[in-house]
Amino acid sequence: MREELYFPLFVDLSQKNIVVIGAGKIAARRVRSLLPFAGKIKVIAPEVSSEIAEMAASSEGVLMVEQRPFETSDLDGADMVLAITNDKDLNTQIGTLCKEKKVLVNVSHEKELCDFYFPGVVQKDNVVIGITASGKDHSEARKVTEQIRAMMEDAE
Asked: For 17-113, CATH number?
């Protein structure tokens, strides 16, 4: 049996509605990676990290924060959803709802519910590189991302 690999796909997110459920450290990292590419990101969580609040304040309206619990209607009109809460059951519920609604979803605690993996991203000017280890070894992907980032910085 062939090993499952994920195809790198570059998508225009400038006109897409991205919904992030959760506002902790992982959510902050993913939002920071998405901001240069996204047209609209909405973060929903009962508690919001100061990092996400600061990004929202300086995002010129791209990042909006709603400090409250998740509601099913939050998925209406979403093109892509990231379920990144500390509640695995809630993440699973969000992932299942997204599958039913045919909305692309990444569920931080359940690989089987993910339509896509969140890559390591290296960007320099108009060059964008995405790195993944097909969801199998996050530390390997992070290490390669940092190596490529260092190479890009040196290539002046």
From this structure: 3.40.50.720
